[in-house]
């Protein structure tokens, strides 16, 4: 596996074809997908995701990666930084994440979000990173706020009508 970012407890690796079954199990879980605009995903949905992400990350050197625990190597979810919707003909960069339910509430989302923000500002030469959240997703809003993101408001975006959060480089003070 090719490492993208390593934190104290987690490693984000580039998505690889060998991760397919883990990603399918994650994205087909209704609890995991509850706060996404996609809902539970089928095998075909995940195949389409893989057809998008593999060339995207090869072209850009980032994207929605696979997250593993450092101590056991166990797949626990996905996290990444990428052009909104992996559509690189527009300039905005977003952060996204999803984890298996058994790993919720353990600080993993905050840990990867902080690492992705730091990586994005250092490597992508951008001043703003965005994230979109379902209005009912209180836990993700807390994660983003802990990481320095500010609520901009409800916005119609690539994914639908969601709350937009932003962090700017000058706000990213450690």
Mean pLDDT: 93
- Rounded to the nearest angstrom, the radius of gyration is 15 Å
SS-derived structural category: alpha+beta
State the separation between the terminal residues, measured CA to CA. Answer: 30 Å
Low-confidence runs (pLDDT<50, min 5 residues)? none
- Note the beta-strand portion: 25-35%
Number of strands: 8
Biggest β-sheet description: 5 strands, antiparallel
Task: Work out the helicity level.
Answer: 25-40%
Biggest sheet: strand arrangement: 1-2-3-4-5
**Helix-strand string:** EEHHHEEEHEHEE
Number of helices: 5
Backbone shape: globular
Concise structural overview:
By secondary structure, the chain is of the alpha+beta class. It has helices spanning 20-27, 30-33, 43-60, 108-123, 138-146; strands spanning 3-6, 10-13, 64-69, 75-83, 93-99, 128-133, 150-157, 160-168. Helix content is 32%, strand content 30%.
Structure description:
It is a single chain. The chain is α+β, with helices and mostly antiparallel strands. Helix content is 32%, strand content 30%. The strands form two sheets. The chain has a five-stranded antiparallel beta sheet with strand order 1-2-3-4-5, with helices on both faces. Strands 6-8-7 form a three-stranded antiparallel beta sheet. A hairpin with a 3-residue loop joins β1 and β2 (10-13). α1 (20-27) packs across α3 (43-60). The chain is globular and about 35 Å long. The model has no long low-confidence stretch (mean pLDDT 93).
Descriptive keywords:
alpha+beta; globular; 5 helices; 32% helix; five-stranded antiparallel sheet; three-stranded antiparallel sheet; 174 residues
